[in-house]
Amino acid sequence: MDAEVVRLYEGMDAEVVGLYEGMETEVVGLYEGMEAEVVGSYEGMEAEVVGSYEGMEALVWGCMKGWKQVLWGLYEGMEAGVVRLYEGMEAEVVGSYEGMEAVVVGLHEGMEAEVVGSCEGMEAEVVVVV
User: Which of 27, 36, 68, 100 is 20–30 Å from 126 (CA)?
Assistant: First the structure.
């Protein structure tokens, strides 16, 4: 059945809407002036987190039990992205760190890993097979 909970924690807004026993659960909250949103369904189904933390943004999207998971964020003015597939499937990281850009694309368990980056105004490219 449906269960809905709406709460306020220490002057911040938090809303929980949930369907239990493997069904969808949704959490929407504001924490210390920053936004966070969680949308999830359990037992291998999708889970999503969207939030801004101390002026930076983070996005997490995932399917559990070997399914796809995506992490995207802005950390202290720099961008970072992660796309991940578990159990030997693809993993991808895209980010810029301290004004320089770095891109990592990887396949696990003996598959290819690729790193492309520009560091301190010069470009460097690394391709590695592991």
Answer: 68
d(C-alpha 30, C-alpha 13), whole Å: 5
Q: How far is CA 41 from CA 22, 38, 44, 78, 120, in A?
A: 6, 10, 8, 30, 43
**What DSSP character marks residue 108?**
-
Distances (CA, A) of 85 to 10, 48, 68, 82, 115: 37, 15, 5, 10, 17
pTM: 0.16
Query: CB of 95 within 8 A of CB of 79?
Result: yes
pLDDT in tens, 54-107: 333 333 333 333 333 333 333 333 333 333 333 333 344 433 333 333 333 333
Nearest-Å Rg of the Cα atoms of the chain is: 18
Token digits of residue 7 = 């709460």
